[in-house]
Amino acid sequence: MRLLDGKETSQQLRNEIAEEVEKFVAKDNRPPHLAAILVGNNGASVTYINAKIKACEEVGFASTLIRLSDTISQAELINEVKKLNADESIDGFIVQLPLPDQIREDKVIMAIDPKKDVDGFHPQNLGRMALNMHAFVPATPAGIVELLDRYNIETGGKHCVVLGRSHIVGLPMSILMSRNAYPGNSTVTICHSHTRNLPDIVRSADIIIAAVGRPKFVTGDMVKDGVVVVDVGITRVVDTSKKSGYRLVGDVDFDTVSPKAAFITPVPGGVGPMTIASLLKNTMIAARRRGV
Ligand code: NAP
Q: Within this chain, do residues 158 and 268 fall inside the same structural domain, yes or no?
């Protein structure tokens, strides 16, 4: 078994981006600038946003965090989005999800200028991605593809089982793995809560991408020898032995699955760090397209 080390790989990617920023700024360009909107005080969202802002600083990007009350209306939030669309000093921005119940996420995402949509959630980006055109690919799937690529994982002709069909992970992941590209060219099965015989399907997988948000959902008896496993899941589970009071648990039972796997991502230290690095990569791309 070999670890697909997202921490180390994402550091390489960040170093490459930092070098690119230096060259970009040396040509009299202002540094790439990422803005993030955070609505409310959801603990996990605050942690993710802080990690993204810190990552920006480390590679030499400018960053702006806009914090808004969780009582904000949909119209007010969309107004904030429109301001960022019009602000020429900002190359790309994200609206951290989830949003409070009074706001429809799809309405907010539709208001984002696709050219600044570095999270790749706008239907225009998703559609372009599906058609193999230039697009912002959502950061988590983009990070997974980057990880598979950097470890030279063979994907062509393989059976890839994607667990979960969310708009931000499972759905784009299934499209990427079935594209005529590398990584890609896999035969993809996408599973969700209505799937019958899920363990049998998972057992036939050469590559498993698990994004269901259920701790230790995939167990050793559900996988075949030599499988490649990408664990996207992050669930906070109460753990009084930790200072924070919780620990992060993936969708894959690492202890029983890893002995059978050829490659597997750890949680934490797998997909999570790749997601942040991919967001930086998308922002770098947005900055390069400035004025185009
Ligand atoms: P989500 O929107 O809740 O989607 C979960 C998907 O799993 C849905 O498609 C759901 O099916 C399916 N599912 C749930 N229970 C199932 C079951 N018992 N059997 C089969 N399918 C089941 O979640 P998400 O946003 O995609 O996130 C998934 C996990 O990845 C979460 O733990 C999240 O925290 C994590 N995540 C990690 C990163 C990272 O950077 N590492 C980024 C994003 C998300 P239905 O569609 O039928 O409801």
A: yes
For the entire predicted model, the pTM comes to: 0.96
As annotated, the active-site residues are 52, 96, 119
Query: What confidence tens digit (pLDDT) does each residue in 140-197 have?
Result: 999 999 999 999 999 999 999 999 999 999 999 999 999 999 999 999 999 999 999 9
Q: Ligand 1 centre from 213 Cα, in Å?
A: 4
153 and 94 belong to one structural domain: no
Domain assignment present for residue 70? The answer is: yes
Residue nearest to atom 24 of ligand 1 (CA): 166
**Which ligand 1 atom is nearest residue 275's CA?**
40
Going by C-alpha positions, the residue among 133, 129, 197 that lies closest to residue 161 is: 197
CATH code at position 230:
3.40.50.720
Do 143 and 105 share a structural domain? no
- Domain ranges, residue 107: 27-113
* CA of 165 relative to ligand 1 center, distance in Å: 7
Classify residue 157 as left (phi > 0), alpha (psi -120 to 50) or beta.
left
Shared-domain flag, residues 143 and 268: yes
CB 287 within 8 A of CB 90: no
In tens, the pLDDT along 204-251 reads 999 999 999 999 999 999 999 999 999 999 999 999 999 999 999 999
Pocket of ligand 1 contains residue 270 by CB under 6 Å: no
Cα dihedral 221/147/47/283 (nearest 10)? -150
